[in-house]
Fold this sequence. Notes:
six-stranded mixed sheet; 11 strands; 20% strand
Amino acid sequence: MRVFAIADLHLSSVTPKPMTIFGPHWAGHPHAIWAAWRELVREDDVVLLPGDLSWAMRLPDALVDLNILSTLPGKKVLLRGNHDYWWPTASKLRAALAGDQLAIVNDAVKIGNVVVCGSRGWLTPGHEPLSEEDQRLLLREAERLSLSVQAAHKLRQDGDHLIMMLHYPPASPPYPANPLTEVIKGARPDLIVYGHLHGVPPERAINHVNGIPAHLVAADALRFRPKLLIG
């Protein structure tokens, strides 16, 4: 079993919303992703999808996009992004998902010897201070991440890999500590994946947190090819 990741699919089957506003390289991006996915991923692999999966506003519309994912090989692990407005309660979501799809909602999942935890995350302090509302949301996401980490530790056994998914990057330049990095410091995952950033080459994004490797896996940063994390 291998583990891949790709974020920010930004699918829009029901109400098309072109991503070319971020550049011409986004033209026809779903087809590029599907072609690379089928080339790289096998049925017994896992693909992590850390957020911004669909532009849909309602679950039934998002399911049209999610059902496309079910035609692709591998087990999929979903996380909410800032644009996933369709994302319902955990119970409604899990009742609607296909059998090859798992969702992380303040908890964790285990597939083989891989345990995955995570939360959406939020804006973090950097060059500019956060508003009071952003500080409140950041603390809430840190608490949700902490709950997910606690669930992961209950699932994890000796020899298991622990992967943390975030949608937002875990820190912002010049990368001061924040509530998310404090949770990460205590959790000590083997690696972190995140998306959200567009037009940023992976080598210019944060690539470690307290010595833990961090991978930007936004679709455009990966040139629309799922990234191999564990082979």
